[in-house]
Amino acid sequence: MKSKKYIVFVLLASTLFACNSNNKTIELHDSTQVASMNDTTVVSEPSFRNDTLKNIYASYTSLKDALVATKANEAKSAASSLATALKGFEGCESAANIANKISSTTDIKTQRASFSALNVELIPVFKHTALTAGTIYVQHCPMANNGDGADWLSSAKKIQNPYYGDEMMECGRVAEEIKGM
Fold first, then answer.
1. 39, 66, 84, 116: least CB-packed within 10 angstroms?
2. What is the pLDDT of residues 43-68, one digit of tens each?
3. Between vectors from CA 69 to CA 63 and to CA 71, what angle results, nearest 5°?
């Protein structure tokens, strides 16, 4: 009987400890990252050796964020900035054309469909770029493109779906991490 009480006590203590440990936050000394054990939010702003890539990524992020927020006019403006940034970057002519297509409409569904095509062009660029610090997360939504799936880039590990916005904000997963050297 004594051993049964001991086992119950250990299980109870373990459960209480486990429940309380989920609220602990880990603070990293690197100012670009914040992690929490009960939260998937990890933000790691990437740094690039090339200022052109930095500008492309900043414009891309503005476009993605506008699509996440379902703000077609902001997406139109951000896509125009992205198209301008891409024009001077060799090998990104097709991506610039897609960004121009996004900037020519305020129909959010059309913008999101074109954003999928844009990512097919841009993700390989960032996979092979001179990322000097931080992490870029390649994220994937299996339901985008009528169930064919689609990817996007993010500086945050937490899923914020640009293909569905608040309809299915957290639909997706991190498919890959591109890490700085």
1. 39
2. 668 999 889 999 999 999 999 999 99
3. 70
